Amino acid sequence: MARYFVGLTGASGHRYAQGLVRALAAAGHDVDLAVTAAGVKVLRHELSIDAGPAGERLGACLEAFAGREHAPRLRAFRADAIEAPPSSGTALTGGVILCPCSMGTLARVAAGFSSNLVERAADVALKEGRPLVVVPRETPLSALHLLNLLKLARLGAAILPAMPGFYHRPQTIDDLVDHVVGKILDRLGVEHAGRRWSGTDEPPAELGTAP
């Protein structure tokens, strides 16, 4: 089993990070977590989880974030903890996932400017040739955003926007979240039980046919 690093930033979409962490832990993997100062505010707004101004209380919120059964597999670090293991290439990880990734974090990682542990972990993944999955959650995208995404893609990062599909006929928000989480897990090579397209599904009869 591997250890992954998940960095939460100030972009909307922390439900994706929550689903991802739970899925990784359920698959038997360990997860390191850090949330940026802006991410702390979004985490509190979207999931009602108060990790403290600098993420110093994130460790006390692991059960609320990932569930009691998964919390033992998680470690939480302050965003300013530059001495934490994920900041070094010698601390082997199976990959780094920025989920959700704000455009500010994106820009700093693309420029090689690490102002916190989340950005440093991404920088380490690039320099060590390890998987880096960036999950941007922003719309519309400006030309500058697109250039930064292209730069990171050329550097080896996987750009995986939070764009859930609908071909699996989602019925709940969790269905939409699980679809994106499944795509991230696929990119990391982690097995999961998410629904896959078979090419044989028929549309529900009640939907009828197009005229």
Brief descriptors of the model:
Rossmann fold, 37% helix, alpha/beta, globular, 7 helices, 211 residues
Question: What does this entry show, briefly?
Answer:
By secondary structure, this protein is of the alpha/beta class.
CATH superfamily, please? Flavin prenyltransferase-like
Q: What is the mean pLDDT?
A: 93
CATH fold node name: Rossmann fold
- Separation, N- and C-terminal Cα atoms: 52 Å
- Give the second-level CATH assignment, the architecture: 3-Layer(aba) Sandwich
The secondary structure category is: alpha/beta
Topology, number of strands: 6
Radius of gyration: 17 Å
Task: Provide the helix percentage.
Answer: 25-40%
Spatial strand sequence of the major β-sheet: 3-2-1-4-5-6
Q: Domains counted in the coordinates: how many?
A: 1
Outline type = globular
- Low confidence ranges: 207-211
Tally of individual helices: 7
Q: Can you tell me the CATH class? A: Alpha Beta
Largest sheet: 6 strands, parallel
- Strand percent estimate: 5-15%
